[in-house]
Amino acid sequence: MEAAMLLTLDFNINFVSSNSFLERFVQMAKVNKITADLAQYMIEIALLDYDSILVRPSVMAMGALYLA
């Protein structure tokens, strides 16, 4: 419903998350699927912790990829 209203009003809203950063970093680093999946899992687990809301999405994505 909200999306339809925003489209009608021609709002252009983009939401950048750590997942979009991770997709780009995976392409740049040319890592395999297992490493990318592990980094994705780490981001999902980090989102369960309330303190991780203070971490910038780009830093979280790069940290997860580095740990994977």
Summary tags:
single chain, 68 residues, mainly alpha, 4 helices, 65% helix, globular
Briefly summarize what is shown.
By secondary structure, the chain is mainly α. It has helices at 2-8, 18-29, 33-46, 57-67.
Structural shape: globular
- Helix/strand-derived class? mainly alpha
Oligomer: single chain
Beta fraction: under 5%
Fold and architecture overview:
It is a single chain. With 68 residues, this protein is mainly alpha-helical. It has one domain (14-67). Helix content is 65%, strand content 0%. It contains 4 helices and no strands. It has helices at 2-8, 18-29, 33-46, 57-67. Helix 3 packs across helix 4 (57-67). It is globular and about 40 Å long. The protein starts with a helix and ends with a helix.
Walk me through the topology.
Layout: H1 2-8, H2 18-29, H3 33-46, H4 57-67
